[in-house]
Structure formats: C-alpha cells, structure tokens
Write a structure and sequence with these properties.
Number of strands: 0
Number of domains: 3
Distance between the termini: 66 Å
Shape: globular
Structural class: mainly alpha
CATH class of the largest domain: Mainly Alpha
CATH topology of the largest domain: Serine Threonine Protein Phosphatase 5, Tetratricopeptide repeat
Number of helices: 25
Helix content: over 70%
C-alpha cells in the first residue's frame, strides 16, 4: 500500500502537469497513477482529490471531441458521493471540507456540461445554502466560499443574469486572493475561468467597459500557460476583444503585463464606477482622432528646417531646462517666451523626424507644452493653459502609441502621457470644463489600471484620488468612496518609510476616505482612516501643518458623533488626537 506522502506527491505531480502541459498522454498517465494510489490507500480526502482531477480531465477530453460522456457522468456522481460524506462528517478537517465544496461544485458543473442542467443547478443552489452563512475568515473558509459562489454564478448565468454582478465581482476578488496567497497553478487557472465568467455577466448586463477589463486580464493570464487548448482559448478571447473594438473603435484594448493580476484592484469597486466612464474614454479617443494635425504658428517654411538630429535634440533639451529654471525663479515672462519659441520649433521638426529622433522630438514637444501650460495655469490664465495642456496630452499619447509595447521607453512614455492627463484635468477644472476633467482622469485611470511599475502606480493613485474628490464635490458619494478606496490601496503600497512624497500622498487619501466616511456616518471607517492618517503624519518630519489641522478637525467631528468608538481607540493607544 502506498504511503500518504507518496499519494500526495503523485497528486501534486498530476495537478502541476495538468496546469503546465494541459491534456495529453503524459498527463493522463500521471493522473491515473495518482488515482490508483489514492484508491489503494483508501483515504477519502485524497481519493476525492484524485477522482476529482481524473473526472475533470476526462470531461475536458470527451466534451472537446464529442465522445461518450457515460464515464464522465459516473465519475462526477462518485465525486458527489465522496464529497457529501466528507461534508456530513461531524468535526471534519477544514481543508478537506473546503476541497469537498470545491469538488462538489466542479462535479455539478461537469454534469451540467453533459446535458444534465437541472441537476447541476439544484446541486449548486443547495451547496450555496450550506456554505453562504459560514465564516470565510481563513484560507479554507475562503476556498469553500469561492468554490460555492463560482458555481452559483455559473449556474444562474444563463437562466437569470439579473443581479449577478456583485456576486460575480466578489467571485473574481476571492479567486484573485487565493491565487495570490497560495501561489498554486490551479488557483491561477481558476482565476482565468472566473474572469471569463465575469465577462459573460458583464455582457448580459450590457457593460462593455467591464467586459473589456475582464477579457484583457484573462488574455494576459492565459498566455502564462501552455498546451493545445491554450491557443484556442486565446483566439476566443481575442475574438471577443475584437468585437468590442469594432463596437467602439476609438477605445484602445490594453492587455496588462503578466504580473499585473497580483495588483489589480477590486472588481467590486469597478462595479461602483459609472458605466459612463466608457463614454469618457470614447470621448477622449474621438477628441484625439480629431487632432489630425497641429497648426504650426507663423514661421519659416517646413523646407527650411532639416530633420532634427541628436545634437539638435540635445540643444532643445537644454532650452527646455532653461525655461523651467526661469519659471522656478519667477521670471515668468522670460520663461513663457523661451517655452513658446521652443514649442513652435519642435512642432516643425515633428513633421520631418523619423525613428528614435521622432520619439525624442515628441517627448520634448509634449514636455514643453506641458511646462508652459503649468506656467500659465499658475498665473491664473486657465483658458490659455487648457489649450496647451490638452495639446501636451495629444502629443504625449501619439508618442506613446508609436512605441513597442512593454519596452522601457514605452513605459516611460505612458507615464509621461498619464502624468500630463492628470495635470491637464486640474487645468480643465480651473477652466470650468468638468466633462474634460472627467474624460482625462478616466483615461489616465484606464491606461494605468493594470500597471505594476511604481511610477505608473503613483500616477494611478493620484488620478483615483482626484476623481474621488471631484465626485464627492459633485454629490456622488458612492462613486467617490469606491474611487477613494482604490486610491488608498494603491498609495498604501507606495508609502514606504524612505519616500516622504508617497507618505504625504497616502496621508492625503486617508483624509479623503475619513471625510467620505463622516459624510456617510460610517463611524468605524472614519476612526480607521483617522487612526491610520495619524501614524502617517507622525512619521513625517516636520508634520505638514495643514494636513494635521484638517485631521484634527475631522477627528473632532468623529469624537462628537461616536464618542465610544473614539474612547476605545484612545484606550488602545491608536487615537493620536
């Protein structure tokens, strides 16, 4: 008889091979060895694991080639019997119970795929009634809830998709947490499946914006795997993305990097963002397309300007730095003249340069327009600043979209374009252009949402924070709270002890979340945010007076409304006010 350790080794090998290589003769042999060893050992939990894997693989093979599904149904029924015994056993092991829930959900889905839809749905509904009231505050509890919720969403999707969006979003969030915390290949595969299911829910709810996010992330994850089924899955996802692109040709499809799934924000938060954000993205694309050319100011004919070369771009870089330096010492008229002349010259070279020189010219041109826009914005000339700020975004985006994806230069260009968007949005607000402000912030959030590199995460945090503040000012508290929560998550990641700027930004977002919690009379959340901001401000030297005063003002409001909560926080030593 094999030992438990030997069976566990065979089970891990079968799971890993399935994840890495997909179905095939080698995988079938590995699964067969694991199942035979588990039957010989006679341990119900290990047998359930092995039989579940064997039945799933057999189902995938038979359903793909249209073969006889009798053996598939028999395997699924045996899985259900084993799982039911484990779930009914009093005081059972938590990890085995979680696996029993998972295998029950999987076997029910297999029965549904073989044509037994009613049996599938009845099993799943009963499973959810059993699992839903239970705790999910440890890994095993989360596994069980994720499996049952995933099964429920799948079973209800084709029958009654109404109201499924929150459950589908929680399903993705739970599955992402499992994949991140366990590192198991199977959990990552389950995340790709959950994203596909979420995309189907989004389609049923006519939310192409959510479909685009889920399918793009799913595509990036499927690329991590190998096997004959992978290319077919990639082709199917790409077909869906192309369909979305045909419906909204101006909206870019951006596939996140392979590691972005670890830092992706909550899909529950995405639900709280208005679907009109897609409209803002489409407005941006339409506005960008409308800028077919930038009219050069009066000056020498194009033929009088040879294409820029490295020595010329180096000179332009020096002139840009000179203009910025003049602005820094309040020589605003001189700075404006230097930047205006430089922008004019660069606009001419943009039409002639090619290759790397064109990239350098566009980068300098966008930066020059941006610096002049910010100079005029600081002088209160918002309308003039807006025209230049918008043009800096147009040029920066053109530069970015001409570069090879995922290269260091492309990431730097994306950061520059998104940075220009965020600051141009502030200029739009000052110029009384709320729709343009919303358009630019939505675009910056969309382009940076799946980024993993710190510069882009920092810009994402700023865009989310600014949009949240705007939504609060405009009486949209639910949307503001969702955006602020995402900003808090992003900025918390960046706020290390050696980055004072990031710490200040995080503290600023904590103040915003505290204010939103007070607006909603959510006193525990307000105490949580103010406690966190207190420690951030204490770590800054010297503490920023304005932020400290704002925190004290909010703390006084909370103390007056929820004295017991504040007293408890003070007794615990976490209330610094």
């Amino acid at each position: 008889m094999p030992s438990p350790a030997e069976v566990d080794r065979l089970l891990r090998a079968a799971d890993d091979l399935t994840a890495r290589a997909g179905l095939g003769a080698e995988t079938s042999a590995a699964v067969g060895r694991a199942l035979a060893a588990a039957r010989a050992l006679g341990d119900p939990g290990r047998l359930l694991h092995a039989l579940g894997r064997a039945t799933l693989n057999l189902a995938l093979e038979r359903l793909a080639d249209g073969g006889d599904v009798t053996a598939v149904r028999e395997g699924a029924e045996e899985v259900l019997r084993l799982a039911a015994d484990l779930l009914a056993a009093p005081g059972g092991d938590a990890s085995r119970r979680a696996d029993a829930v998972y295998r029950t959900a999987q076997a029910a889905q297999i029965l549904g795929a073989t044509g037994l839809g009613d049996r599938w749905r009845s099993i799943v509904e009963e499973l959810w009634r059993t699992v839903e009231p239970g705790p999910a505050d440890d890994l095993d509890g989360r596994r069980a809830r994720t499996a049952a919720l995933t099964a429920l969403v799948g079973a209800r999707l084709d029958v009654d998709p109404a109201g499924l969006a929150p459950a589908a979003a929680e399903m993705v969030d739970l599955q992402r947490g499992l994949a991140r915390d366990t590192g198991e290949p199977a959990a990552l595969i389950d995340l790709t499946d959950a994203l596909g299911t979420f995309a189907r829910v989004a389609r049923a709810l006519d939310r192409p914006d959510l479909m685009r996010v889920a399918l793009s992330e799913q595509y990036s994850l499927v690329q991590l795997f190998a096997g004959p089924q992978v290319q077919a899955q990639l082709d199917g996802i790409m077909a869906s993305l192309e369909e979305l692109h045909r419906a909204a040709p101006g909206v870019a499809i951006v596939v996140p990097g392979a590691g972005a799934w670890r830092t992706r924000g909550s899909y529950l938060d995405l639900l709280d963002e208005p679907a009109q954000s897609t409209g803002a993205t489409e407005r941006f694309a339409a506005r960008l397309a409308a800028e077919t050319r930038v009219t050069a100011p009066p000056g020498p004919a194009l033929g009088d300007h040879p294409p820029a070369d490295p020595s010329v771009t180096a000179e332009y870089t020096g002139r840009l730095h000179a203009g910025v330096a003049l602005a820094a010492v309040d020589r605003t008229a001189d700075a404006d003249r230097v930047l205006a002349d430089l922008a004019d010259e660069l606009s001419l070279h943009d039409r002639l340069a090619i290759g790397p020189i064109l990239d350098a010219v566009r980068g300098l041109w966008a930066a020059t327009l941006y610096e002049r826009a910010m100079l005029l914005h600081g002088l209160g000339r918002a309308e003039e600043a807006w025209d230049l700020g918008w043009l800096s975004v147009v040029v920066a985006v053109r530069r970015h979209e001409a570069l090879t994806a995922a290269s260091p230069t492309e990431r730097e260009a994306l950061a520059a374009a998104a940075h220009h968007m965020v600051d141009a949005a502030a200029i739009a607000d000052a110029a009384g252009r709320p729709e343009d402000e919303a358009m630019l912030l939505a675009e910056a959030i969309g382009r940076c949402a799946d980024a993993t590199d710190p510069p882009l995460r920092r810009i994402l945090g700023t865009a989310l924070h600014n949009r949240a503040a705007t939504m609060r000012d405009r009486g949209r508290p639910a949307t503001a709270a969702a955006l602020a929560g995402r900003a808090r998550t992003v900025r918390r990641e960046l706020a290390g002890p050696h980055d004072e700027r990031a710490m200040r930004e995080y503290a600023n977002t904590l103040l915003l979340t505290a204010a939103l919690a007070i607006d909603a009379a959510d006193w525990p959340a307000a105490v949580d945010s103010l406690t966190a901001v207190g420690s951030q401000l204490h770590a800054l030297r010297p503490p920023p007076e304005a932020m400290a005063a704002h925190a004290a003002h909010l703390a006084a409001a909370v103390a007056g409304a929820a004295p017991a909560l504040v007293a408890a926080a003070r007794a615990a030593g976490s209330w610094p006010y």
